[in-house]
Each structure stands twice: as C-alpha cells, then as structure tokens.
Structure prediction request, 120 residues.
Amino acid sequence: MALLLPSLLLVSFSSAAARQAGDLEATIQHLIAYVRTSDVMFERNFTRHDAAQAAAHIEKKYQHYRDTIESPEQFIKLCATASLVTGMPYTVIDGQGNELPAAEWLNTELIRYRFQNAQQ
Prediction:
C-alpha cells in the first residue's frame, strides 16, 4: 500500500496537469477563433488588418511562444498585445471607428469565456 500511494499521487497529478494543459489550449484556441470571427479591424505598426489576418498573426506568435505560455493572460500579453519589433500596442477598431487596446479587448472576452464556462 505504501508503494501504491506515490503512484496514485503521480497519476492524479499527471491527470490534473493534462486537464489544465487541455483547458489552456482550449481557451487559447477560443481566443484565436474570437479574433478570427470578429468584425473589427486590427492596427499593428500603423497598418490595418482584417480579423483573419490578425488571427493568423497571433497564431504565428503563439506557435513561437507555445512552450513558454502557462496562462491565457500570458498568451494575450505575448501574442496579442504589442509588436515585438516596435513595441507599439495592437489596437482594435470597431465599425464606428472606436479604438481599444487589443489586450483589453481580448481580456474582456477571456473574462466572458470563463464566466460562461463556469456556468456550465
């Protein structure tokens, strides 16, 4: 029995870690899909991009940082907040011309997504 306990703890920890990694990936994929299906423009380094282009860019940055990202907030910070080259923040522009920092826009969606999942 004494030998069984460490094995059970390891399996339990591994299962929890796998579930957490799965939750992280699902959340990140939701955020990328949210960008892709949005009806806003993204401004990056003085150039405007449609939602599909923005999602592709964010996805590319995610692939670069994938092994170091441990939370959705870190994903947003590393992949959807600012240009690595210029440091300029990404901006979201809605149909009425209102501008909002992309990080704030995505963090708001993250809060909504978590609340929705907590209700299920």
The chain is about 60% helix and 10% strand. The CA atoms of residues 43 and 53 lie 11 Å apart.
